[in-house]
Amino acid sequence: MRVLHVEDNPVDADLTRRSLARQAPDIVLENATTLALAAQALQQPGGYDLALIDLKLPDGSGLELLMRIREQQLPIAVVMLTGSGDQDAVVVALQAGADDYLSKGLEVFERLPMTLR
User: Fold this and answer.
1) In the chain, which residues have pLDDT < 50?
2) Is there a contact between 8 and 34 (Cβ–Cβ < 8 Å)?
């Protein structure tokens, strides 16, 4: 499974990569740090099976990327990453077409492979 991880925090990106390498080596994670880089990556041939998108990015909201994916009818699942206390954003993301969401925190790494699959 190829996953585009849209995350600007290098520590979070590294922890996610390490966790998946240990728990689910069949999941290939590629990182984009901005909406612009993620949009470029999604246009490349070969595609992704899933996008794991942080809500807060330096050049906008992850919701913008979710809406772009759905408008372009890209055949990929989308899981949104939220900070704690972002329940309103979760509702908006699910209404906009997200397949699932995860709240950031150490416990997320235990559930991550199952959620992505």
Assistant:
1) none
2) yes
User: What's the pLDDT score for residue 36?
Assistant: 96
pTM: 0.92
What is the rounded distance in angstroms from the CA atom of residue 72 to the CA atom of residue 39?
A: 11
C-beta contacts of 95-99 below 8 A and 24+ residues apart? 96/63, 96/66, 96/67, 96/70, 97/66, 97/67, 97/69, 97/70, 98/66
Give ∠ CA 27-31-35 in degrees, rounded to 5.
Answer: 130
Residue 103: the pLDDT is 84
Closest Cα to residue 97, out of 68, 56, 61? 68
